[in-house]
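Just curious. Invent one:
>
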Amino acid sequence: MLQKLSIRNYALIDNLEIDFSKGLNIITGETGAGKSIILGALSLILGQRAESKYFFNQDKKCV
């Protein structure tokens, strides 16, 4: 089970940490809030390659 997601230097996100609760977690927000960005970061954990154009700061690594 995913307990915590830390995103650094990805798309519009400089630094973000999300703690998940047990059971079902729902990510909601208005258009442009970053829901798809969070899912994109999660896909990197599952093996998708990151393109440098998605880095918040291209001089740093995406973590």
In short: The mean pLDDT is 84. Residues 4-54 form one domain. Strands lie at 4-10, 13-19.
